[in-house]
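$ fold --in a.seq
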Amino acid sequence: MLVTLKEILQIAEEKKIAVGAFNAPNLESLLAILDAAQELGLPVVIQAAQCHENLTPVSVMGPIMVAHAKKASVPVCVHLDHGETLDFVEKVLDLGFTSVMLDGSTLPYEENVRLVKEAVKLARAAGASVEAELGSMGRRESGGGDGTGEQDDTKIYTDPVQAGEFVRETGIDALACSFGTTHGIYLTAPKLDFGVVEKVRKETGGIPVVMHGGSGVSSEDFRRAVAAGVRKINYFTYMDKAAGAGLTAYLESVKEGMPVFFTDAAVMATAAMKENVKAAMRVFAGLA
């Protein structure tokens, strides 16, 4: 069933779990995510990231995501991940998305507030929820970086007091915080400051905190993040990597001289993504 992010986060808050939020830039990833969620009976967020427009445009994937969410047996939110412009926010709302993120985290505070307030107006008119971000996870978020988790002078941890002001000024439903994670592949273990999450929750009156850069974080740290107040965890890189491993396994299974079929490769990649997503969802929900 299609629901808003606010509704999904209410479920997460009641159960003291985090809901998995997975990017679906193609049909294979979408089916893997929804099959995993329905098999586990857990709510889920399916996301389209604006930076993935070069893979499959949201004008193509968006209607498919909304249609599949409506048919699902579990609560599903269709969400814009890292929206960069108000025009794009408006575009996905017109497609039926039930939640949007306007990411102004790399902009000056005042400009971030201004843009997010505009996004909130657009979303409220469409009956949708809004996520925003305060702080920055580093260069990768603004188009560069390697996601290694190494020292990065552009990484800015979220200020809990400022977070309280930001939430009150904008009226958002969820806040993505920077507390030590990094987008992409980790080559070194991240050093997470869960105190940031706890203080943000306190200063904002308990707003659901979103964790970006979740791939590669240990199960133990995921559990600590949830205990601190994280209610949505974005996860894509390792799911995508699992698909690559499934593809490799298929190619290695093809006997020499035999043809390689894309449809067979896609089936194995989808199955690998599904198992990876299920494993992540179990951790986020405290089932593993």
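$ fold --in b.seq
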Amino acid sequence: MSASENILHAAGLAKSYQSGRGQLEVLHDCSLTLAKHERVAIIGQSGVGKSTLLHLLAGLDRADRGSIRFGERRLDAMGEAELAAYRNQHVGMVFQFYHLLPEFTALENVMMPILIGRDISTAQHRAADLLEEVGLGERRHHFPSQMSGGERQRVAIARALASDPEILLADEPTGNLDHENGLRVMDIFAGLHERHRTAMVLVTHNPELVIGFDRVLNMEPGGHLAAA
């Protein structure tokens, strides 16, 4: 795989947090390269640093050491406004617990990332199309409280794709779902990837969910990644 095909490159990442017992080092010298259109799965037990890595790649947090490049741009050199634009325009993120706004409908939740810089009609059409893709076209005017957990996660997936990002990051997206709904969500991810070709990094503790990914990596404590 040539360097020109790479869309994201993280090298030597380290991240520590303050805890009651002093500094807790979560990542130490963690590196990852993601190619355009590639699907990468990272598996590992809770606490090894999977979510921390995704937060760094998404620009939600900054590393203590190391660098992250998106194309030719370095995230660690970006100001807060540049990072916000990176998150809004280039990265979609799916969390375990949905993070939908309860006072807004499914359609309005999906519209949120694309209201800036676009007219309402364009945002509505884009959101409606994505909800159709995840099988929720007829539920677009329902509120999160009127939906099942699996439906809420599908709304969250549609929202993550609203800005047509180059990268999709998914943090234990089936961790709050039963087995059947978890498999359905993974099928939706596969279909969306086939149609949109968005590069993807998904973290999970369940290796059964990532069969068919381009690469499956195992994360060890400290963030070391190796082929699973």
